Amino acid sequence: xxxxxxxxxxxxxxxxxxxxxxxxxxxxxxxxxxxxxxxxxxxxxxxxxxxxxxxxxxxxxxxxxxxxxxxxxxxxxxxxxxxxxxxxxxxxxxxxxxxxxxxxxxxxxxxxxxxxxxxxxxxxxxxxxxxxxxxxxxxxxxxxxxxxxxxxxxxxxxxxxxxxxxxxxxxxxxxxxxxxxxxxxxxxxxxxxxxxxxxxxxxxxxxxxxxxxxxxxxxxxxxxxxxxxxxxxxxxxxxxxxxxxxxxxxxxxxx
Length: 255
Description:
Strand content: 15-25%
Number of helices: 7
CATH topology of the largest domain: Rossmann fold
CATH class of the largest domain: Alpha Beta
Low-confidence stretches: 1-23, 25-41, 48-53
Order of helices and strands: HHHEHEEHEHEHEE
């Protein structure tokens, strides 16, 4: 259910690897390196070898490791925030599909969750996630009936931003996989419509393809602006993109 099984991340080139705090997108990327090749071991499949080679040669993987970020996907959120100004000090944030915590780290930093009077970050994933200072971490299947109420209790009030990087396990059948990710997106949106404060925002991973009409109609009916954004840290060969909705028009029910 969580995209973070394979890691989150990405960032812009230039700058010294490891320089700057997690929120400093400008330092992401590092100098260009010669591509390394991985030999296929007897017990390693070709697909595993190719994945390992991609990880070794991915500058965002190296940059995330150098800066103490939990995944390369942290750079995706950093780039979305740099482009759209989503994260602000003092906000309440929900991070769905959070493990291993790359997006959560960025959110904690940007909303000042470790500071007195700062923001609040609640993270959920079906997978186990190491505790993270400044965040409330909940291991639970988001689709369980009890999940929304438990998230609301930890939030302690309306949310300013709901983030969802959830992704169902892939089947290898593109149409089926797309329907599954849209179903998760619709579930995340239904939750967001319950908890967002007026003016709040929603960010959700989707895959390029059809069957999004209903999702987009609901977003356009409830938010001032809806757009699709593919951050530079998303791999070029990946069909993933993010739908970003801002300016929530409604008011949440009592939380």
